[in-house]
Amino acid sequence: MSKTQIYEVEVMFGDCDPAGIVFFPNFSKWMDASSLNFFVKCGVQPWRELVKTRGIIGTPLLEIHTKFMKPATYGERLQVHTSVIEWGAKVFKHQHRVMRGDTLLCEGTEVRAFCERDPADASRIRAIPVPEDIKALCH
Amino acid sequence: MSKTQIYEVEVMFGDCDPAGIVFFPNFSKWMDASSLNFFVKCGVQPWRELVKTRGIIGTPLLEIHTKFMKPATYGERLQVHTSVIEWGAKVFKHQHRVMRGDTLLCEGTEVRAFCERDPADASRIRAIPVPEDIKALCH
Amino acid sequence: MSKTQIYEVEVMFGDCDPAGIVFFPNFSKWMDASSLNFFVKCGVQPWRELVKTRGIIGTPLLEIHTKFMKPATYGERLQVHTSVIEWGAKVFKHQHRVMRGDTLLCEGTEVRAFCERDPADASRIRAIPVPEDIKALCH
Amino acid sequence: MSKTQIYEVEVMFGDCDPAGIVFFPNFSKWMDASSLNFFVKCGVQPWRELVKTRGIIGTPLLEIHTKFMKPATYGERLQVHTSVIEWGAKVFKHQHRVMRGDTLLCEGTEVRAFCERDPADASRIRAIPVPEDIKALCH
Predict the structure, then answer these.
(1) Name one Pfam family in it (chains A, B, C, D) (predicted).
(2) How big, in percent rounded to 5, are the helix, strand and coil portions of chain B?
């Protein structure tokens, strides 16, 4: 469906909660970082450049679905394996698999859309069709 | 299925990302806070007490599923409406609806389990049956 | 020197670290929220409005100095008492006192400057003289 | 005074605020991670091991002082250069210099103490004399 890119994370003390394990929203934060890393590694400009060249502000989230299998703690190195498993007309679906070496810790999907500012109201954003050239870079 | 409890949040500048809107993992953080608030409002002890009295360390996440409808920004007050929509033998499912007044911003479910330290290995945790007395308090 | 405004915080589980106490950078996050709240309560527009009406993007930090006296944990309600204790030509100094009722938990100062985009390079920001009308609102 | 250890950070989108730059408390979070990394690189066990072997829960913060010179944004790689610049009887002082290559972005000190649980009340912590063997490892 697409290339797979790997984003590496080292868990910090401050990422962990009173149970001593990663506070789960941090997995979402790392998946988000891995999504941006995926596009940059595939040759897409980071959002702050793309907004200037093409008006694309990024790929806001529409939906996330995550399963947590095993906990992680600080000092550990994790790898987020990210790909695109579905391309729709206006949305696409990421798969993220968070590994600690060979061990799968957590797995999730994200539905996102490329968005631009609404020309009629700059405080609003709206989805645009998935750009074909960006899609091509990811294959 | 259960009572509904409301947790109120005021969005901080630091909760928002370069697009000027709430960075989405913060919605998960607030749902987590609203889950704990749900049990405390229903009369359950906070986890740091429950671990002393009954060995229950909290309700770790097994799965989350969230849909994002509308963005929010700093200075806004949000209300997370939280209930339990399913009780299983060892797991239960929360519903969280994040509102800004009458407007639904984001909606999600969480599957959680009450957990204790594994007596054989204190560095591991394991799910226990949903305590009947806690379930009763939530109705 | 200025009015004092109070910002209230309820500590979340996810604000706490493996020692079970507030992870200290969260105190900085709350002081930042309390700084913005200070100006809004004094009658100043939030930054996203001020940038449109006057080009002021906010009050970035130049320096912070914080002493931590006592820890806090989740479920507790804290009050950040915020004032301005020095007005310079281009900078000002906040004092923040984080209280849990009558108990002082942590105390800090922040040096900040009102800033605008550099007209010569929109990716850079620069300090402007402290606006007299905003200063007047804070007294 | 001590060795200098370097902790590397890649700035994430979610580390940045509506101004598009790193939200400043994240610099404190990275300095904290760099402090722990400093001790581990010097040969000290991570806190979750040290608490089992010697009852030391970590090195809570007493005071921080940070100056912010230049902003950073997402996608950039930063290096936190960390050393100990003062050893007291019960406290020590870290220096952290956050660099982006040759450019100094922010500089700070932290005063910390090695702490253990209070034997009379496990919910409280107390400072212990700086362990001589740990000090020796850092030179």
Answers:
(1) 4HBT_2
(2) 25, 45, 35
- The string of DSSP letters for C46-111 reads PHHHHHHHH-EEE--EEEEEEEE-S---TT-EEEEEEEEEEE-SS-EEEEEEEEETTEEEEEEEEE
For residue B78, the domain's CATH number is 3.10.129.10
* Domain span including residue A87: 5-137
Residue D139's Cβ-side half-sphere holds a number of Cα atoms within 13 Å equal to: 8
Residues of chain B contacting residue A21, judged by C-beta atoms under 8 Å apart = 60
Q: How far is B60 from chain A (nearest CA, A)?
A: 9
> What's the number of domains chain B is made of?
1
Q: Chain B residues with CB inside 8 Å of D74's CB?
A: 18
pLDDT tens for each residue of A9-55 = 999 999 999 888 999 999 999 999 999 999 999 999 988 899 899 99
A19 φ/ψ angles, rounded to the nearest 5 degrees: -80, -5
Q: Which amino acid is at B82?
A: T
Structure tokens at C61: 């930090």
Phi first, then psi, for residue C92 (nearest 5°) are -145, 160
Q: How far is B84 from chain A (nearest CA, A)?
A: 18
Q: Which two tokens stand for residue D138?
A: 């850092």
Check if the interface score ipTM surpasses 0.90.
Answer: yes
Encode pLDDT of C81-133 as tens digits: 999 999 999 999 999 999 999 999 999 999 999 999 888 887 788 999 999 99
